[in-house]
Write a structure and sequence with these properties.
By secondary structure, this protein is an alpha+beta fold. Helices cover 43% and strands 18% of the residues. A four-stranded antiparallel beta sheet has the order 2-3-6-5, with no helix packed on it. A hairpin with a 3-residue loop joins strand 5 and strand 6. Helix 1 packs across helix 3, helix 2 crosses helix 3 and helix 3 packs antiparallel against helix 4.
């Protein structure tokens, strides 16, 4: 079962760095992992429509005046990283990552959420996250842009494999707006 420390250690091992016991320990690797891990995780979550990080939500309408010529404003969930689409493929704009503007009523969205429990990550996501972390840490930890490039290439290969396997599980979102797809089951 994956943990933040095991993912960080996997990334550090790819660089030839020393493993850590905690993000609070007094070592350069631990400090850098503590600094980079959450940001790298969120970037990877936004990179693809991961099945394990997808949720369908009904958004709460806000009393404020909408922007961008839309008729309604809605509050996004606090763990929402990315809005994939609205029911009926209604157009929308997201501002300040917390407010969605649209004409849809009610607003139901398919979103990517921040999953912070590594135990919920599929194995290939863990591998990809460790590879991405290694690429990000190569220069600040090992002072090597050459190593960074090598780690980046390995990350991109891992990402493609993880995306392919994740997408082969079927559709993560309900078949809104396509009765033919919904009828085939």
């Amino acid at each position: 079962m994956a943990s933040v420390i095991s993912i960080c250690n996997k990334g550090l091992r790819y660089l030839g760095g020393e493993e850590i016991l905690s993000l609070d320990q007094e070592s350069r690797g631990a400090r850098l992992c503590s600094q980079y891990y959450a940001e790298v995780r969120d970037e990877l979550l936004e990179e693809h429509h991961w099945c394990f990080a997808t949720r369908q939500v009904s958004l709460a309408r806000l009393p404020e005046s909408p922007l961008f010529g839309f008729g309604k404003a809605y509050q996004l969930p606090t763990d929402c990283l990315y809005v994939r689409r609205l029911r009926g493929d209604a157009p929308f704009e997201v501002v300040e990552r917390r407010v969605l503007h649209t004409d849809a009523a009610p607003a139901e969205a398919v979103v990517t959420v921040r999953v912070i429990d590594p135990a919920r990550y599929p194995a290939l996501f863990v591998e990809t996250l460790a590879r991405k972390l290694a690429a990000e840490l190569a220069v600040p930890l090992m002072n090597s842009s050459r190593l960074e490039e090598s780690m980046l290439q390995k990350y991109l290969r891992a990402l493609e494999r993880a995306k392919y396997m994740d997408a082969s599980q079927g559709t993560a979102a309900p078949g809104w707006g396509n009765d033919w797809i919904g009828a085939r089951g």
